[in-house]
TrEMBL record:
<feature type="region of interest" description="Disordered">
    <location>
        <begin position="1048"/>
        <end position="1190"/>
    </location>
</feature>
<dbReference type="InterPro" id="IPR039776">
    <property type="entry name" value="Pds5"/>
</dbReference>
<dbReference type="GO" id="GO:0006281">
    <property type="term" value="P:DNA repair"/>
</dbReference>
<keyword id="KW-0132">Cell division</keyword>
<keyword id="KW-0539">Nucleus</keyword>
<feature type="compositionally biased region" description="Basic and acidic residues">
    <location>
        <begin position="1067"/>
        <end position="1076"/>
    </location>
</feature>
<protein>
    <recommendedName>
        <fullName>PDS5 cohesin associated factor B</fullName>
    </recommendedName>
</protein>
<feature type="compositionally biased region" description="Acidic residues">
    <location>
        <begin position="1149"/>
        <end position="1168"/>
    </location>
</feature>
<keyword id="KW-0131">Cell cycle</keyword>
<dbReference type="Pfam" id="PF20168">
    <property type="entry name" value="PDS5"/>
</dbReference>
<dbReference type="InterPro" id="IPR011989">
    <property type="entry name" value="ARM-like"/>
</dbReference>
<keyword id="KW-0498">Mitosis</keyword>
<dbReference type="GO" id="GO:0051301">
    <property type="term" value="P:cell division"/>
</dbReference>
<dbReference type="GO" id="GO:0007064">
    <property type="term" value="P:mitotic sister chromatid cohesion"/>
</dbReference>
<feature type="compositionally biased region" description="Basic residues">
    <location>
        <begin position="1177"/>
        <end position="1190"/>
    </location>
</feature>
<dbReference type="GO" id="GO:0000785">
    <property type="term" value="C:chromatin"/>
</dbReference>
<keyword id="KW-0677">Repeat</keyword>
Length: 1190
């Protein structure tokens, strides 16, 4: 040992046994071999070996020489570094090196050797790991705390470790690195900004994505040293955020990213930083506020974040940004809401009020994102969203912007499918959102075609998915229909109706393109293209695309046949899917990924493809209904009472029988309906009858075995069934069997009015004078108030039905030109007065039939004037309905004239302004207009005229005001065509013209201009004009009328007009043959108590009919209109009795009268007047209208 000490003090280097001198004179291989032995020696030494420490002191100093520290061979450097690490371990806590510069060189050298850790597959990796383990365990770098350049050494060490860490390192490497670095932070006096940047830079997203292991290392280091490093982190953010000293660090521009990462690592690192963010939320810099909002959105919305509860002032300050003036900030807050709702349901209450305000934000994008946020959270879990939030989505389905409406509708549809159809949230969740289906279908009432198309798509994809198996699809439809509200049901029915109409229009286009080209062909194709275009989005662009489609159909036979199959009533759902796929594939082009034409075709195919209903589907639906009837269906499990399910199922079948009648054409379906027909339940049997009526057109020839069984059942129902079933049975026989007259003869003793009219419409000529005699009989019915026998034995309801049937029959005959010509002016006036019948249901049904005939342009224009008589109807709804009918018909004719310029020669029959002469004629011959210049009667005349003129004069198209004035002036140059020699009638005519002129002058500023053309007056109603202008019968009352009476229709009618009968006056005996006998009387206060019977079977009607047929070739006797006058002539200027007037009309009863479903044109005209009776208002004397109660 003494020898060893001497060696040490001598400055001589002592090498371990077996190790020779290590110098530059030996080869690299030999140097490596000798160093390995030295490493082994130092590795085996411990701190207690004082002698050996002294012995090898000079060797330790020698190994730290520049020769070794700067040696070019990496193996030599590694072995030397391992020796130096052991030397620090052995000589700890005092190192054998005292020079600060030497210590710096040694630690910088060791740091450089640690780069070898990067290659985990290197043969020397274990020595590198030993080096790391040794210095981490001994905490060798802590020696550098006393050095001036310690920050440089530590920074280089940190950078090296963050650079070399990779996914090849195991947990031990990671742990030793953390140990080494954490000791420097925790045991050092301070942490420099440079060293802090070296750690934090690994948290910046760009670096994080490049080296995930470095991020994990920094994260572990920060967690380990959170308490020690927190003051330095706080100081860094104070410098940047509060003082604005961005130069203190290169990471200044990433402060918000760093705050988020640090918060996710350990919230305690930011205890003093978060209050600074509240200050930044109120910054005047929009971009700065936006950055803070984005940051806090992530912090508040993080899954395990408790920031909102721990720092409520910051949370409330953040919520205030929902109302920020800067749009991007509000948008960011709204986007954050979905994450917050999903991760923190307890904060939903705080968010609700702010989202409510933002759902009405003026910015479309913000309203859109409110919907997205709520729907996203709802799709994750319905319990995360309260009803108030869902209601915001509901409101936005009516947003003014299509993008917002679409998002709201699609969101609700997805929620409905998930929780109602797929049942993911259970029955409670399904019940909570049961309103969605109704709301979505209600949107079909919107005018926008985009909304309607989206509802159809939602129905096919989310409410009743078309890709379901047939039985499951029909079950879904069945229970959906059973739970819809009334308006939603109507919307769904309308949707099927619109799709069916479009399908027919496309079929018509297909028929047209197969015809040879001509001028008429081009017009017809263009007309059909316009109709189809109105059923597609963006009609302006769609028009060109539909034209192109028509051209494609002409040229491509394959596409044409596919489309013909698609619109065929017999097309199955599977066939429809195949046709749509083939047509789309044929029209698509790989070279044109964005093809607007193809998109339009897809829209069209989507609307016309029968993806829900076919023969198989109807069969499955009927089976489902039968299960409910038999009590074997799972109605209660579906949340639908059995009776409600059956009722809805039958209604659904009735609707489908109207829109998809061919789908019912299968033996299985008809046999099932036969079974329903034989059931005791009246509702079921009625529904089956209606379905047979709608679908049985070809049953006689295609299903003779069904016919043989069905006919006896129908005959029995017609003869002995309940009234409604009897009616439907008659309809079925008429619709399904060719020899219907024979069957009717077996059922009824006499033919009814309906059959007579239908027969006449089939004959279409009056050669046998059958039309004339029929019209006389119908007139007699009206003159006798519906009681042809005049014995007073008929019930009021039956009389009402007969009056309605007679009036509607005249309307039906008037639609045929050959019969319109033989309808006399008296008969026309009598028919018109039905609209003022005392029975409310008669007025209502007659007005509907009148409107229908006018809308189809079948009824002549003079019948439009009939609506002028509704001006004094006591029921506000009836007046409003009449006005709507006038508006629609006038607009319809004007539109028709614009689109068909070639019909100018028929202008007198189409131009709405030509209704004025007919209205004047009706008012002149109004039975209530008795005294020519009576003030009250003139007021009534004025109201009736204004009822029509107000609509006609709403727009002064083509100087129509001057045209009307000219027409009235021309009328004043004529005489009444019905009674040209009757001075009083002509005086009435000129007085009514004066009233009309007074209205035109008072309501128009352009009436005095030149008329665009000379009006042509109807020759039947007025004589040829006199060349000498007739002086007007200007009455002094006109000015009074104009000053004291507002022309607009009154709401309260104190003196409604009515229809009555009475003895004829002497003064008007001479004109008795030319005018209907009408007067007025007080309507009796009666009610219907006797059981309802079919009026077609009444014996008195049969006798009256026989009597009329006997007299069909005889002119009416003077002073008679179906019955003799009852008394002598009254005083002059009173209503002449014996002529039919308008009886007192009263409002309908509070109970609504059950209305039948709309029937086809050839159906019985009395359908909507069943179960009616007369009921006059008590204590109302004088004139009035017919009233009804139930």
């Amino acid at each position: 040992m003494a020898h060893s000490k001497n060696r040490a003090t001598d400055g001589k280097i002592t090498y371990p046994p077996g190790v020779k001198e290590i110098s530059d004179k030996i080869s690299k291989e030999e140097m490596v071999r000798r160093l390995k032995m030295v490493v082994k020696t130092f590795m085996d030494m411990d701190q207690d070996s004082e002698e050996e420490k002294e012995l090898y002191l000079n060797l330790a100093l020698h190994l730290a020489s520049d020769f070794f520290l700067k040696h070019p061979d990496k193996d030599v450097r590694l072995l030397v570094a391992c020796c130096l690490a052991d030397i620090f371990r052995i000589y700890a806590p005092e190192a054998p090196y005292t020079s600060p510069d030497k210590l710096k060189d040694i630690f910088m050298f060791i740091t450089r050797q640690l780069k070898g850790l990067e290659d985990t597959k290197s043969a020397q990796f274990n020595r590198y790991f030993y080096l790391l383990e040794n210095i981490a365990w001994v905490k060798s770098y802590n020696i550098c705390f006393e050095l001036e350049d310690s920050n440089e050494i530590f920074t280089q060490l940190y950078r090296t470790l963050f650079q070399v860490i990779n996914n090849g390192h195991n947990q031990k490497v990671h742990m030793h690195m953390v140990d080494l670095m954490s000791s420097i932070i925790c045991e050092g006096d301070s942490v420099s900004q440079e060293l802090l940047d070296t750690v934090l830079v690994n948290l910046v997203p760009a670096h994080k994505n490049l080296n995930k292991q470095a991020y994990d290392l920094a994260k572990a280091l920060l967690k380990r040293t959170a308490q020690a490093i927190e003051p330095y982190i706080t100081n860094f953010f104070n410098q940047v955020l509060m003082l604005g000293k961005t130069s203190v660090s290169d990471l200044s521009e990433h402060v918000f990213d760093l705050i988020l990462e640090l918060y996710n690592i350990d919230s305690h690192l930011l205890l003093s930083v978060l209050p600074q963010l509240e200050f930044k939320l109120k910054s005047n810099d929009n971009d700065e506020r936006l950055q803070v909002v984005k940051l806090l959105a992530k912090m508040f919305g993080a899954k395990d974040s408790e920031l909102a509860t721990q720092n409520k002032p910051l949370w409330q300050c953040y919520l205030g940004r929902f109302n920020d003036i800067h749009v991007p900030i509000r948008l960011e807050c709204v986007k954050f809401a979905s994450h917050c709702l999903m991760n923190h349901p307890d904060l939903a209450k705080d968010l609700t009020e702010y989202l409510k305000v933002r759902s009405h934000d003026p910015e479309e994008a913000i309203r859109h994102d409110v919907i997205v946020s709520i729907v996203t959270a709802c799709k994750k879990d319905l319990s995360l969203v309260n009803d108030q939030l869902l209601n915001f989505v509901r409101e936005r389905t009516l947003d003014k912007r299509w993008r917002v409406r679409k998002e709201a509708m699609m969101g609700l549809a997805q929620i409905y499918k998930k929780y109602c159809l797929q049942g993911e949230g259970g029955k409670e969740a399904a019940k909570q959102i049961s309103w969605i289906k109704d709301k979505l279908l209600h949107i079909y009432y919107q005018n926008s075609i985009d909304d309607r198309l989206l509802v159809e798509r939602i129905f096919a994809q989310y409410m009743v998915p078309h890709n379901l198996e047939t039985t499951e699809r029909m079950k879904c439809l069945y229970y959906l229909y059973a739970t819809l509200d009334q308006n939603a049901v109507k919307a769904l029915n309308e949707m099927w109706k619109c799709q069916n109409m479009l399908r027919h229009n496309v079929k018509d286009l297909l028929d047209l393109v197969k015809q040879p080209k001509s001028e008429s062909y081009n017009k017809a194709v263009f007309s059909k293209v316009m109709v189809i275009t109105r059923n597609l989005p963006d009609p302006g662009k769609a028009q060109d695309f539909v034209k192109k489609l028509a051209q494609v159909l002409e040229e491509d036979e394959k596409i044409r046949k596919q489309l013909e199959t698609l619109v065929s009533p017999a097309c199955s759902c599977k066939q429809a899917e195949g046709c749509v796929r083939d047509i789309t594939k044929k029209l698509s082009s790989p070279k044109q990924p964005s093809n607007p034409f193809l998109e339009m075709v897809k829209f069209l195919l989507e609307r016309i493809a029968p993806v829900h209903i076919d023969t198989e589907s109807i069969s499955a639906l009927i089976k489902q209904v039968n299960k409910s009837i038999e009590g074997t269906a799972d109605d209660e499990d579906e949340g639908v009472p059995t009776e409600q399910a059956i009722r809805a199922g039958l209604e659904l079948l009735k609707v489908l029988s109207f829109t998809h009648p061919v789908s019912f054409h299968s033996a299985e379906t008809f046999e099932s309906l036969l079974g329903c027909l034989k059931m005791d339940d009246e509702k079921v049997a009625e529904a089956a009858l209606q379905i047979f009526k709608n679908t049985g057109g070809k049953l006689e020839e295609s299903f003779p075995h069904i016919k043989s069984v069905l006919l006896p059942v129908l005959q029995h129902k017609a003869k002995k069934g309940p009234p409604r079933q009897a009616k439907y049975a008659i309809h079925c026989i008429h619709a399904m069997f060719s020899n219907r007259d024979t069957h009717f003869a077996q059922i009824f003793e006499i033919q009814g009015i309906k059959l007579m009219v239908r027969w006449l419409l089939g004959v279409k000529n009056n050669q046998s004078k059958s039309g004339t005699s029929t019209l006389r009989m119908l007139t007699a019915i009206l003159n006798s108030d519906g009681d042809l026998t005049e014995q007073g034995k008929m019930g009021k309801p039956d009389m009402s039905r007969l009056r309605l049937a007679a009036g509607c029959a005249i309307l039906r005959l008037a639609q045929e030109p050959c019969y319109h010509e033989i309808i006399t002016l008296e008969q026309y006036q009598l028919c018109a007065l039905v609209i003022n019948d005392e029975c409310y249901q008669v007025r209502q049904a007659f007005a509907q039939k009148l409107h229908k005939g006018l809308c189809r342009l079948r009824l002549p224009l003079e019948y439009l004037a009939v609506f002028s008589l509704c001006a004094k109807d006591p029921v506000k709804e009836r007046r409003a309905h009449a006005r709507q009918c006038l508006v629609k018909n006038i607009n319809l004719r004007r539109e028709y004239l614009k689109q068909h310029a070639a019909v100018s020669e028929k202008l007198i029959s189409l131009l709405p302004e030509y209704v004025v002469p007919y209205a004047i004629h009706l008012l002149v011959h109004d039975p209530d207009y008795v005294k020519v210049q009576d003030l009250e009667q003139l007021k009534d005349i004025k109201e009736s005229l204004w009822f029509v003129l107000e609509i006609l004069m709403a727009k002064n198209e083509n100087n129509s005001h001057a045209f009307i004035r000219k027409m009235v002036e021309n009328i004043k140059q004529t005489k009444d065509g019905q009674a040209p020699d009757d001075a009083k009638i002509n005086e009435k005519l000129y007085t009514v013209c004066d009233v009309a002129m007074n209205i035109v002058i008072s309501k128009s500023t352009t009436y005095s201009l030149e008329s665009p053309k000379d009006p042509v007056l109807p020759a039947r109603y007025f004589t040829q004009p006199d060349k000498v202008v007739i002086q007007p019968f200007l009455t002094p009352f006109l000015t009074i009328v104009h000053e004291n009476e507002d022309i607009t229709t009154k709401t309260d009618m104190d003196k409604p007009r009515g229809r009555k009968r009475g003895p004829a006056s002497n003064q008007e005996d001479k004109s008795q043959d030319s005018k209907p006998k009408r007067g007025r009387k007080k309507a009796a206060n009666t009610s219907m108590e006797e059981p309802e019977e079919s009026w077609t079977e009444d014996s008195s009607l049969a006798e009256a009919t026989m009597e009329m047929e006997d007299e069909q070739n005889s002119p009416p006797k003077k002073g008679r209109r179906g019955r003799p006058p009852k008394s002598a002539a009254p005083k002059e200027d009173t209503a002449p009795k014996g002529r039919r007037g308008r009886k007192k009309a009263a409002p309908p009863p509070e109970e609504d009268v059950e209305e039948d479903q709309e029937e086809e044109e050839e159906e019985d005209e009395d359908a909507s007047s069943e179960n009616t009776e007369v009921k006059a208002k008590p204590g109302r004397p004088g004139r009035g209208r017919r009233a009804v109660s139930r």
